[in-house]
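Input record (one chain):
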Amino acid sequence: MRRRVPTGINENYARELLELHTLGVDGGYTQEDVINVARIFTGWSIEPPRQGGDFQFHDWAHDEGEKEVLGVTFPAGHGMDEGARLLKMLANHPATMHHVSRKLCQRFVNDEPPDGCVDDAVAAWRRSGGDLREVLHAIFHGPDFWAPLNTRAKVKTPLEFVVSALRAVGADPDTTPRLAQVVARLGEPLYLHVAPDGYPEREDAWVNSGALLDRMNAGVALAAGTLPGVTVSLDSLIPATGDAEQLILQVNDKILDGTMTENTKDVIRRQTSDIGDPVAARALAVGLAIGGPEFQRQ
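The corresponding structure, as predicted from the sequence alone:
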């Protein structure tokens, strides 16, 4: 069968590689760099998904001409190897070190990453030659990670909220996709983010009145045993009791690790005050704690 001769290049992946995953939007590359990166990756492909989707390189589709990226020449006559060379070059570029280090500090420390955290991560990147274990070690053991300003500064994504809620109550998930559907209803359908930059890390992407109400409803449903895809028994976690203060004390200890505010305590007192069934009161108290502001923090 005759191969179709390529008539142009697709710059999308090249631009995403440079802007999102390595150098960053201010990384110093030009439109010519984007074009030449796209030329370098001509011929890179995958098998049809029904055949496994493994990587394939089609030499017949590769541009073998000379290219130049960020002032570095890629001589003519090469194939797949120049793509690997480009990736190694980008991984060791100072702009990549700073861009990826900042994203890691944003992921684990604060939506507005402290300069010191980023600097420590970049220094570890340089020392280790890009060993991300060392980069993460520098972040987790740095002063910014433990600073009071950054403690519990991050808001959980919907996936993190659902997973942590299940762990908090010792829930037993089933093997159906129903829990994944719960995560989707909370705003984070798994693997379905449209843009190539992944789901956002910032609080303002997840926190609004509708989203918080949805989380509260999910928390109450989970504690009541009505959330699809999971089985819950609170008996071994928090004994049912008619003593409201004892109930709040237990919920604070078991669910919120002692971080419950006076406002949340007052909400639980008011909402459970007219419930005569201790089991129902316990379920509501746990649900309110899971849906409350303290539990939303990482």
